[in-house]
Design goal:
This protein is α/β, with parallel strands linked by helices and 283 residues long. 40% of the residues lie in helices and 15% in strands. It is built from eleven helices and ten strands. Helix 6 links the parallel strand 8 and strand 9. The two termini are 34 Å apart. The structure holds nicotinamide-adenine-dinucleotide. The site of nicotinamide-adenine-dinucleotide has 24 residues, from helix 9.
Length: 283
């Protein structure tokens, strides 16, 4: 099974489904989960300097022997390193044991992101990164970025799930040809999303799990997703979402579940700004 791709605004193709590695803190478990994912067919992996596991991802890639060009690897620049994005990028590459990245994102829109973006544009123009983008950017951040940028972000990676659907932001991204990446696509399993009766009924109707129904809903909304799991069966389940299609009435039923309820931090809060000052802990 080959995962469908989405064409980014610079013609780079990104597999619409990948695996996220946030909070994967156990070395052995990481290596095992990566190999299971690869065997299942995953080729797209989403990490970040702040996750502290780039080195393990590099080790897992090397150990697997897979051809680098078969993979799509994303990492992210953390705000504490906005003072020297080039160095931060080189450090990420080194930890990953790679000589280019497929996608590099500004992780959060903390102060200084405009200058950081300009440094990333230089890396992109020097062909060290196939595409550059942003994460957790709201419309106001994208508008501010537009004033100082030459390159339109290829993606905006934002929290999205049935309880947080962000219709206005999605409309803006579509109008500006910026692809949508959904982080926390399963709502991180929080707020009782797996017990939601509407989703449970749909799971029974399509003979799928609630997780598969949610992931399929994202695919049909053209979002790029990389759910996280370290369990072989769940990795397989999250991959088995290409053999059914939700009807438009069922898509509408999920649309009605929106509560505009984030799990993540508000990028304008003091709590968030304090977090962005922490420097990544590198393993
Ligand atoms: P997620 O929505 O993918 O949920 C992960 C949790 O759901 C897992 O811990 C697991 O317990 C559960 N799960 C996974 N598959 C399941 C299944 N089939 N059935 C039942 N439960 C299942 O949340 P996430 O890990 O936060 O998000 C995915 C990825 O997005 C991350 O790994 C990371 O790569 C990225 N991310 C980015 C940001 C950002 O700020 N850019 C923030 C958070 C996450």
């Amino acid at each position: 099974m080959t995962v469908p791709t989405i064409t980014l605004n610079n013609n780079v193709q990104i597999p619409q489904l990948g695996m996220g590695v946030f909070k994967m803190k156990d070395h052995e478990q990481f290596l095992k989960a990566f190999q299971w994912a690869l065997d299942i067919g995953y080729r797209h992996f989403d990490t970040a300097a702040i996750y502290g596991n780039e080195k393990w991802l590099g080790e897992a890639i090397k150990k697997s022997g897979i051809d680098r060009h078969e993979l799509f690897i994303t990492s992210k620049l953390w705000p504490a390193e906005f003072d020297d994005p080039k160095q931060a990028f080189e450090n990420s590459l080194k930890r990953l044991g790679l000589d280019y990245l497929d996608l590099y994102l500004i992780h959060w829109p903390a102060p200084g992101y405009q200058q950081a973006w300009q440094a990333m544009e230089k890396l992109y123009q020097a062909k060290k990164i196939r595409a550059i983008g942003v994460s957790n950017f709201m419309i106001k951040h994208l508008e501010q970025l537009q004033q100082v940028s030459q390159v339109t972000p290829a993606v905006d990676q934002i929290e999205l799930h049935p309880y947080l659907q962000r219709p206005k932001l999605l409309q803006y991204l579509q109008q500006h040809n910026i692809a949508v990446e959904a982080w926390g696509p399963l709502g991180q399993g929080r707020n009782g999303v797996f017990d939601e009766p509407v989703l449970q009924d749909l799971a029974a109707k399509y003979h799928k799990s609630v997780a598969q129904v949610i992931l399929r809903w994202h695919l049909q909304r053209q979002a790029i997703i990389f759910p996280k799991s370290v369990h072989q069966q769940r990795l397989q389940q999250n991959f088995d979402i290409f053999d059914f299609e939700l009807s438009s009435a069922d898509m509408q039923a999920i649309a009605r579940l929106d509560k505009n309820q984030p799990n993540g931090s508000d990028p304008n809060s003091d709590e968030f700004l304090a977090q962005t000052k922490l420097r990544p802990v590198i393993n």
